[in-house]
Design goal:
Largest sheet: 5 strands, antiparallel
Strand order of the largest sheet: 1-8-3-5-6
CATH class: Mainly Beta
Helix content: 10-25%
Number of domains: 1
Distance between the termini: 40 Å
Strand content: 35-45%
Structural class: alpha+beta
Shape: elongated
Oligomer: single chain
CATH architecture: Sandwich
Order of helices and strands: EEHEEHHEEEE
Radius of gyration: 18 Å
Number of helices: 3
């Protein structure tokens, strides 16, 4: 299917803005950070470009998932536990039986995302939210680097 030429938009990259986001988790599960990313874009007066997110950890991950029904996230935790169960005979258990499975889940989901920004808003789908997926059983503080590349509203 060809690209509709009328849908092509060109924006000059004028800005690279970065920030650090600290996220407290309460143990295995998902913490939505969509609102915090939106506040970052509002703060810098982002117009058009892309927001990049990078999680500085190897036992948690970043995902875009449904934010309407919490049961989806519950089922995702269950599915990931089936893919990488604790106490499955892992060699690496220095930090506990949940650590190696957390590394595997992080590898499967990934630690970076990029989301298009148009007219100052993330171009997420209707039911999409951005989450830190915590794969350890204990609470942690996770660091997410946010970076916007694009154009901002002129001052």
């Amino acid at each position: 299917m060809p690209i509709d030429p009328s849908s092509v938009e060109i924006t000059r990259v004028e800005t690279i803005a970065s920030a650090a986001l600290s996220v407290a988790t309460s143990g295995e599960g998902f913490v939505e950070i969509t609102a915090e990313v939106a506040r970052f874009l509002e703060t810098i007066k982002a117009r058009d470009g892309v927001v990049l997110l990078y999680l500085r950890h190897t036992s948690a991950s970043l995902v875009i998932q449904e934010n309407a029904d919490a049961d989806v996230r519950t089922d995702l935790v269950t599915a990931l536990a089936r893919l990488a169960p604790a106490r499955a005979g892992w060699v690496h258990e220095v930090e506990g039986p949940d650590d190696m499975p957390a590394h595997i889940k992080s590898m499967l989901n990934g630690v970076s995302l990029h989301v298009p920004v148009a007219a100052g808003k993330m171009a997420l789908g209707t039911w999409q939210g951005i989450y830190v997926a915590e794969h350890r059983t204990r609470p942690h503080r996770r660091e997410v680097t946010l970076q916007f590349v694009g154009a901002c509203v002129s001052a």
